[in-house]
Amino acid sequence: MSDHIVIERQDAVQIIRMNRPDKKNAITRAMYAEMASALAAGDADKAVRVHVFLGVPGAFSAGNDLADFMTIATGGEGGGEVWDFLLALARTEKPVVSGVDGIAVGIGTTINLHCDLTFATPRTVFRTPFVDLGLVPEAGSSLLAPQVLGRQGAFALLGLGEGFAAERALAAGLIYKVVAEDELEAATLAAARDIAAKPPEALKIARDLMRGDRSELFARIKVEGEHFRARLKSDEARAALVAFMTRKK
Ligand code: COA
Fold first, then answer.
1. Is residue 191 in a domain?
2. Which of 60, 69, 102, 224 is positioned for an S-S bond with 55, CB 3.0–4.6 A?
3. pLDDT value of position 77
4. Residue 143's domain spans which residues?
5. Ligand 1 pocket, residue 138 CB under 6 Å
6. DSSP characters for 31-76?
7. What separation in Å is there between the alpha carbon of 62 and the centre of ligand 1?
8. pLDDT tier at 1, thresholds 50, 70, 90
9. Is residue 192 part of a domain?
10. Domain annotation covers residue 71
11. How many angstroms does the Cα of residue 93 sit away from the middle of ligand 1?
């Protein structure tokens, strides 16, 4: 276990905190693996009724660690942990709540498409620069974003890579509430406790009905993943990754 993911239980609430502030919570393979295990363990544990994703002040997540992308782009192995995490996320049996402050890039945005409630602060910007990186949408976002945002909103997010600041994200239906920075965690955890206090069987049936058949989602995550891996080895992606790695601040 690294300290980049901190798992905490508060009664029936399982908190999964991304905690790599020096890299703006860029997610490494080890972090994906720990988050996948936590989701599976929480789902299997009757004492857990809700999962909560949190980040650190100013950074929910800057997305996949670009050095890990570079490893695959240059012929190395990897990616299984991402796949495990995405499936665990799409498969969750229990509600998922997120509290997002500041940077929410790539998977830092697309995680929230799987959440039942997302709280965000006014300074939060959701952004998915997949295409600018020579990549394609992931985490089932090519399926979920059009459902949530409509076709044109999804294209603005996933195709153009436009930033959705908190108020726009709220108006677009991407998030549940905008709350002040110093209230974010309290509001997120209060909602989680409210969820945990509901009759769990009825809530599970209601949530499953709202989610519908998830087989299309699993299939989409798989197809996106195949494109994603292939794209990582493309000239477009390599050039974008080299540009990030060698940028001058
Ligand atoms: N992977 C690896 N390292 C990352 C990272 C990522 N996705 N995002 C940020 N970092 C690192 C930076 O390299 C920097 O490390 P250093 O201090 O050792 O140089 C550190 O985190 C702080 O980032 P910095 O760029 O200085 O912070 P910022 O506030 O100026 O900008 C971002 C934050 C998120 C806008 C910018 O870091 C960025 O664009 N990151 C890439 C996001 C991305 O494309 N993610 C993949 C999506 S698919």
1. no
2. 60
3. 79
4. 5-182+197-248
5. no
6. HHHHHHHHHHHHHH-TT--EEEEE-BTTEEE--B-HHHHHHHHTT-
7. 6
8. low
9. no
10. yes
11. 32
